[in-house]
Design a protein that fits this description.
Thermophilic metalloprotease-like, alpha+beta, 21 strands
Length: 415
Amino acid sequence: MMRDNMEARLSEYARLVIRTGVNLRAGQPLVINAPIECADFARRLAREGYEAGAKDVTVVWNDERFSRLRFEMASVETLGTYPDWRRRLYMDNAEDDAAVVSIHAENPEAFLGVAPERLATAQQAAGEALMDYRARIMSNKNAWCVVSVPTEAWARKVFADKSDSEAVDALWEAIFSTVRIAGDGDAEARWKAHTDFLRRASDFMNGWAFASLHYTNGLGTDLTIRLPEGHIWAGGAEETQAGRVFVANLPTEEIYTLPHRDGVDGTVAATKPLVFQGNLITGIKLRFEAGKVVSFEAEKGRAHLETLLETDEGASRLGEVALVPYDSPISNSGILFYNTLFDENASCHLALGKAYPTCLEGGADMDSTTLISHGVNDSLLHEDFMVGSRDLAITGRTKDGREIPVFRDGNFVDF
């Protein structure tokens, strides 16, 4: 794994996550969600956190192998119960204004073969128990950042033709490239320039205040998405409700907003696999009427797609619309990461489930009933799936009926 400047790049990466990702301030708690395989990087984050003046650092470990044992062997009653001590761990820290870093490095097939209904039972229990916590995060009451580092199981999936050590090396190199790490200490400046570009893209979309977007490509996508009055495009650097700047995803290449939950019509074809509950779903096609999925297809993992869509009423509606140029660094790498954090930033994508209230004027201060009345979708889940392609065209329609090109040949028009 080691390269001449590996230590310098690891330190720069950890510093970027703490100083730019969550932008930790002195006296603020830090929570790190980490797979046990990523312990070394989690400790590096903790060190950077303390050096930045963290009040304290809490690491919440997870272990996919143990989780699989539990999903297979625990009673259904147990799977349907979420421990209150774990709920309080998250909520108590969040209410103390903790910054939250999550290391997302799952094995794409960790739970292959586990009964979908058992996975769904556990997910629903966690979703209900953590509803208030997730609402805080998605309303930007806390600074948060999702990052990733390699694990052997994940690296083997991405680079199946390499040995374990070579695959991990290759995945490190790919991750460093996507997060603009060179080991020269200039990553924060590069990220400032990048987030400035994403702000300009957001300004372009906000300036038009489109009433709807129309997507087409050669794979069968022909989809119209209505945007609610007062929607906001965001991306790159964001702000907490208290005005603290942070970057929610490292890497990120997207700008995003929310659709009207009842305003999606037509057909969309996914262009990359979706990893859901440790299972791969490929060849997805969805048909929407009045915002709701009314029919669906999948070449592989159809039962898991059905489980996803049936999680709750909002799971079969869209909660996010995100624009990513086809000629973005992750897309141009040619690597299929089997990891939503990366694959969603290689492609325009949509998300089934919960919307970000911050993407509606005044939405962060609205309760769930008021949000729904404004067309904002709610759900226990938020699952991104990729729809971008080399030939994707997106046309915006203004309130007065003008049609404005937004994407042509998979990329933004000039703005």
